[in-house]
């Protein structure tokens, strides 16, 4: 029986008082440990590969029927406790008119990297109508998901900026860090505009009926805590704070962010995503070191271990669930996304095992 207070939903949000993911995210005691997987809808599923054959990624993201079907596939197959919208963090940038593409085998590639004041000044804003197709897909999902919550998502300002400044994926983020430190006013202008884009995109998803959101700051782990607080925290807080009136759970996740967890929570997260590098109980200890209440956490099985033998996987799942009990609420997940070569049957077994364990 849940002990949490029901949310004050906007009309677009469904009333799902017993959904384990929403109960855990609000610090209640769910009927079972909720589980979903980042990148659960994607290349690990044969039905996804069949549907996407010959269809470019960005085209699929703006096809309401296709994005709805792809989002539903892992829910049907695995019985996960949440769907996450099939999209990409660069979708709102593309929709706004920025010349960006997702190149197979590489990732997002920007035709003209943004590194000057003129380029930042020319950065277009995002209008809700430019992501109407995504909102339509959310509406279809709300109709078809039954009692399963839908998580909307967006990329956080730092991670979006890193793609725009570097021109694509980066190992060292040298252009991003150089601009951030050498031209802080220009950096804050760029990050502020990207915060507006992310906020518009998330609001469009929530207005269409999404039940929770996750803000991905995938590459924030490249920063020191001091850099994060000065250059990133204000802009992520603008995004997450701008969603407060929806009163839906807000999850904040990054890779390699063990030293940033407290600051990421301060940005406005109800649930902090944790990668595989630190145990969940240690993450909770860090998050409560200031004497504040225990937060919700999400994570944190190493996705590479899904290729190990079942006894190894089972032992890790049991350990993670046990460590997650230190939190006010635990949402089981991976420490990053599902790897393309993962056996879907293993993911289904993980879901079944998690659901058998005591919350």
Coarse shape: globular
The SSE order reads HHHHEHEEHHEHHHEHEHEHEHEH
Number of helices: 15
- Percent range for helical residues? 40-55%
Instruction: Please identify the oligomeric state.
Output: single chain
What order do the strands of the largest sheet run in, or round the barrel if closed? 1-4-5-6-7-8-9
How many angstroms does the end-to-end distance come to?
12 Å
Number of separate strands: 9
Describe the protein's architecture and organization:
By secondary structure, the protein is an alpha/beta fold. The chain has helices at residues 20-25, 46-52, 57-61, 64-78, 91-96, 117-121, 132-144, 157-166, 174-182, 184-207, 225-241, 261-266, 280-287, 310-324, 344-356; strands at residues 83-84, 100-103, 107-110, 150-155, 212-216, 250-253, 271-273, 296-301, 329-334. The strands form 2 sheets. A 7-stranded parallel beta sheet has the order 1-4-5-6-7-8-9. A two-stranded antiparallel sheet has the order 2-3. The longest helix has 24 residues, at 184-207. The protein starts with 19 loop residues before the first helix and ends with a helix.
Search tags:
359 residues; alpha/beta; seven-stranded parallel sheet; two-stranded antiparallel ribbon; 9 strands; 11% strand; disordered N terminus
Topology readout:
Elements: H1 20-25, H2 46-52, H3 57-61, H4 64-78, E1 83-84, H5 91-96, E2 100-103, E3 107-110, H6 117-121, H7 132-144, E4 150-155, H8 157-166, H9 174-182, H10 184-207, E5 212-216, H11 225-241, E6 250-253, H12 261-266, E7 271-273, H13 280-287, E8 296-301, H14 310-324, E9 329-334, H15 344-356
Parallel strand pairs: 1-4, 4-5, 5-6, 6-7, 7-8, 8-9
Antiparallel strand pairs: 2-3
